[in-house]
UniProtKB/TrEMBL annotation:
The keyword Transferase applies. Residues 11-305 form the Carbohydrate kinase PfkB domain. The active site is at 267. The gene is hldE. This is Bifunctional protein HldE. Residues 350-493 are annotated as: Cytidylyltransferase. Residues 1-317 are annotated as: Ribokinase.
Amino acid sequence: MIVDNFLGCRILVVGDVMLDHYVRGSVQRVSPEAPALVLQVLDEDWAMGGAGNVAANIASLGGTAVLLGLVGKDPAGAILRDMHAEKNLRIETRLYCQPDFRTIEKTRFLAQDRHLLRADRESLTMSAEAEAGIIASIHEAAEGCAAMVISDYAKGMITPRVVRAMVEAAKRRGIPVIADPKQPNFSYYRGCTVLTPNRKELAVASGIEADSEEGIVAGMEIALDQFCGPIVLTRSEQGISLFRPGALPLHEPASTHLVRDVSGAGDTVVATLSLSLAAGETLPKAMTIANIAASVAVAKSGTATVTAEELAGALLVDAEPARREEKLGTLSLAYARREAWRREGLTVGFTNGCFDILHPGHVKLLKAAKAQCDRLIVGLNTDSSVRRLKGPERPVQVEGSRAVVIAALNSVDMVMLFEDDTPMELIQVLRPDIIFKGADYTVDTVVGSSFVHSYGGRVVLVDLEVDQSTSNLIARARMPQPQPQPQQSEVVH
């Protein structure tokens, strides 16, 4: 699954780093001193905002972020420098300190999920010395990275020289640059691989309101002429769109009905897009994945991050969050679950297959397997894997649908997709106590049998249901059906 490929991807994030400060409480009355609400403060917390939130999302999704930004010699800067270590995030911070720079800090006052007020502290001037230091750090920090992100919040750090340094460093290494723009003309970012504005930023750059389809199309013509490359437009509740010079646009609708807070959703899109491209996905597919990640982010309160497990569940099925987290996940999640079950002394079984059209033979196999173990993990071949094994006309059901059906069975405790032709990697990572396969195999021909025997595990063969297979079902469905003969009408003499 694509989320597994995020693990180990290093992404360089360069941009305006901010400290997001949240003050939460309840409102019960109006101040007697002025017509203003009184917030009874209950708690407060801090998070990395701006480019820092892009880095936090990359880390949360399984990648490693190298964060390059500018802070001042002040308490907010100190909090930002220490924050990633405290939260055990996979973020390498390379924050350049300009002593007279005021670290950007945004304080949001909230009652439940309702924003009451935001107070900003910032300075917008980066010194020439700081700019030179940032540019020197770009070339050094880019080493070993699979993609780069420009996170521009128009706070003074993303200068033309910084953009040029990013583009040059990326071209030298053959990696993509994803730019989240704030400048009033998109030609500022020429040379980058893809741009990710929202509708407001498109309107500013094009001079045309982007609150209708006609406005977006007209504005995008100007934007594409400025940037000379593909643009992924985030459209809030309307989803996301990909515009490319000389090509028809692609649209993805928003995939959530719950919108609690849109703060930082654009950062989630940029983070997911960069990881997907770094992992080898095409731009259209990367956009789809980023759109689904954003749907997870906006359902949370505050500047939220999205985890690899949340994204994996959302990619597999549009279901309730509890079901996603309960049964569908990545190899990393399956490993964590397997270790927890091991600590509880539970016996863990494993089986795998295409499970294309679920039939009684599948149900019997899974039920018999679960009867002999405490927890059963099912490895499910991806669509591309099924095509290689079964031919170009298979699978009949796409991988997401197959995963949902298997996860719905009481006998199954976890479902995970795998891309390879065999589940050997899964077996080596999970080290199941028992491998279950149908009795059409022999123990010696079961993938992983030697490995599982090496640490005392077992292979169990389950008797198959007679005349039950997906291939037979498909063949019968394709057989021509006998046509009913027309009845002879009676003739009365």
